[in-house]
Design a protein that fits this description.
Length: 157
Amino acid sequence: MATKKKSDVKVAADNRKARHNFFIDQVLEAGIVLVGTEVKGLREGHATIGESYATAKDGDIMLINANIPEYSRGNRENHEAKRPRKLLLHKRELAKLTQAVTREGMTLIPLKIYFNEQGRAKVELGLAKGKKLHDKRETDKERSWKRDKARLMRQKG
């Protein structure tokens, strides 16, 4: 199995606030069904997934509210920017995620959209549970303490 290098993967969209707002339990990779000029629009790098989520619908997982802007040099056949997009998963993964979302009250959050080594668009999905305000404060305190501790260790030698 080949190891992934940073240069092989091109990130098209990143959800930086996801780890701040959610406890990410499990991360998995899914394919995404794109039509028309969406791939070219993604390659331009102006896509946003900050407010998007994935949901189970009719036996499929759909990516809702992801904004892939129209291709700048597209014609009248350009795609719709915020349409729901189907995610490609194995049947076991699909059943497991659907069960987690319906029974356990978890949420599917897209963490990033990227192009893999073969040039295929992939979505990194996180199975997550929402953080409360006090959880966010606690996470910030821990991060701040780790930063201060590292600074002190550097100064002491």
